[in-house]
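Hi R.,

Here's the chain you asked about this morning:
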Amino acid sequence: SIVTIDFLNIWYVPPVGILLLFLMPNGGENCETTLSAKDLKEAVHWDVIWLVVTATALASALAASGMTTWLGGIIEGEISAGLLPWFTGLITPLLSHLTSGTATTTLLSTILFPIAENLGVNPAVLARIIAGTALAVSLPWAGAASAATFASGTVSFGTMFRVGAVATLCTMITITVVSVISVPMLGAFSGP
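And here is the predicted structure, written out as tokens:
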């Protein structure tokens, strides 16, 4: 917040941090690095890091290319104000199973918030739904929590998918209903 560097993005921090730990000595007598070459190769989940980074870059590229505006126009023409929260509650977990939760949140917020304002729906309702349902748990590549759970070896793919599908359905319905009721009832995030 104090210094802004245009080319330095938050998504560069994890891989750069890992590489610095590989290069920096740990202060011991043998001048060993904090991460050994074996740690760098085997212990770091590069696949998860690249998944999150590339998914977020894809969402940013879609927004910069105007694709999100085009998709927003298609969705707005086909959906009503009453269905928009339910559409959001359905599409968010589906997308977050294919990309990271951060990329899904970025992409859907860019597309759906302007639609909500045009249809007279409080965008705060959608913000609550997107934030609450973008946590995919059914597939190992859906996010860091799922990847770490699967990587531990204690949960099989079949179990993760079955339990995750039920959990996703329950959270999708619960969060959508609670958001649709509570945000207007509490007057949360309403404009002046």
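One quick note: The radius of gyration is 20 Å.

Cheers,
M.
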